[in-house]
Amino acid sequence: MSVPLLPAARLPLVSFALGVSLLLVMAANGAHATTLAIGAASVVMFAACWANAARLLGSASALRFVVIAVGAGWFAEQMGSTHGWFFGEYDYTDVLGPRVGNVPFVIPLMWFALTYTGFVMANLIVWHAPLDRAQGVGPAVLLSFLAAMIVTAFDLGADPYFVFVLKAWIMVKTDGAWFGETVQGFLGWMFVAFVIMAAFRLSTRGPAARVPGTFTARHALLPLGIYASGMVFQMIYGHPVEIRSIAPFAMGIPLVCAWAGLQRWHATGGVAA
Prior knowledge:
- The protein has 9 helices and 6 strands.
- By secondary structure, the protein is mainly alpha-helical.
- The chain has one domain (11-205, 214-272).
- The strands form 3 sheets. A two-stranded antiparallel ribbon has the order 1-4.
- It is globular and about 50 Å long.
- The model is unreliable at 1-5 and 207-212 (pLDDT under 50).
């Protein structure tokens, strides 16, 4: 007897339920409050971005994006933590909770949430719309590179905080040129984010299959809000203190440009069809 597949439209809700269940198990086993808070934020962002992507791209394309981002994100982090690929040599601590291999389960979830946010913001900046208005390899490479820069701008402040304040992982090289962090780590973020988004864009042939009229300017506020909240957090809690002045420029410039693109899209109708 065959078991029917779960409809793709329900997968974001299922992922949220599974994430909450795991967090409850962690809490019952005495997980630290910081670990639970990071896990909860990651699960909420992941499920919310997946549901948002399903509205924008359609359930099938959103699922493809999730699989690419989670799979590539996990692989990059696994290779990084075992062989020093991409980001330099480092070891995860127990701060981020249970692991899949060497990688805490929240990390691949973050890779999807951040790359989806970068995907939408890059489209808004270039096309003044949340979706591409051109097909082909050239636009896919350009937009993927821009989105990778947007994602890495977030990491400029996030990495020092996770390493030196939360101690979520330990870098083997501790005297890097960016407040103790290595430049290689940020090049790794650029490369991995670019690969994720280029792979997704190039895997989507023709207009994405989606339900007309379900994604509006109001829905576009989610990815922008996630990015803005990361910027505000770094402005208040960034470490070292210089990060608090860097964040509003590194993250604020692409955020304002994406917001301007959203306003123009909204003025012209603001419905992805």
